Amino acid sequence: MTNRAIVAAMVFLVFEPWPNLLHGQESKVPSFSCARVTSRVNKLICSTPDLTQLDQELAMVFNNMQGQPIDRNELRVEEDEWIAALHRDCTDVGCIESRYRARLRFLQDESLRIASPAAYEETRPFTVPAGLLKEAEERIGKPCDSVGGLVNVTISGFEVPSTRFQPILGSGYVVVVRQAGEHYFAFLFTRAHGSETACRIRDSVSLPPASSASQFVQCSNQDPPLSGFGVRGPSQKDLLAFWIVNRDQLRFERVPINTMGLERAIQCHQPEGAD
Q1: pLDDT digits (tens, 9 = 90+) for 201-214
Q2: Residue 3's pLDDT is what?
Q3: Would 236 be classed as within a structural domain?
């Protein structure tokens, strides 16, 4: 796949709008009919806008994958098993959101692996203990507290790093770095509507270890238009990784900057911070 095709594929995977949005209408229904739902999980999906959107997004990615060179029967069986586990294990919005985001991330990874093995390899998560990664993912969808300001937002099980990382304040979201042992994570959260202190964690991602990363930076690119954050290496010149913040779907997406030929195009600077 050419760099141009990879760029097109990445932009599609990240920014493809919902069908109703193409006509200027906000989509308000999930991928299934809410008229006769009986399960607690489906009722919560129908009544919670964030879950409704996640359900639509997952359905779109799932349908797109069926057009790729894969075993479609195996994909359907796997999806049925995931749905069964979702209904068996989840009883609240936080659990459902966490499961949806994990499933969505998995399917998008698989889609990218099929479309471009090179881009897939470049965007593998940085290695952390499986238990710690699960702990970070389980925070997704959970409430948090920012009584001490955005810099001091409290995330259970994770601490403010001893080395100062300025938060990144975006349009409707904030990205902060938190530490668990020797491992670092970036968390995406939004303020609760009408509240000065309540917030909700939207996504998390593991960062490179301190031994190979020296700087947390705010980054952007003009063509294609991307904005987010990155991590620089010990020389403070090389960009080790770059994630965009998908503002519509409130999640991180790592961009394969080398495969896409964006190493020199992305502009980064120290975050201005928040609060």
Answers
A1: 889 999 988 778 77
A2: 45
A3: yes
Measured between its terminal Cα atoms, the distance across the chain in Å is 44
CA-to-CA distance for 94 and 107, rounded, in angstroms?
20
Return d(Cα 175, Cα 187) in angstroms, integer: 6
Tokens representing 216 are 């947390």
Domain that holds residue 242: 134-269
Q: Give the other-Cβ count within 10 Å of 124's Cβ.
A: 10
153-176 per-position pLDDT tens digit = 778 889 888 776 788 888 778 898
Domain membership flag for residue 126: no
Residue 275 covered by a domain: no
Select from 199, 197, 161 the least CA-distant residue to 178. 161
Assess contact for 156 and 139: CB atoms under 8 A. Answer: yes
Residues β-bridged to residue 221: 226
- Asked whether residue 113 is assigned to any structural domain, the reply reads yes
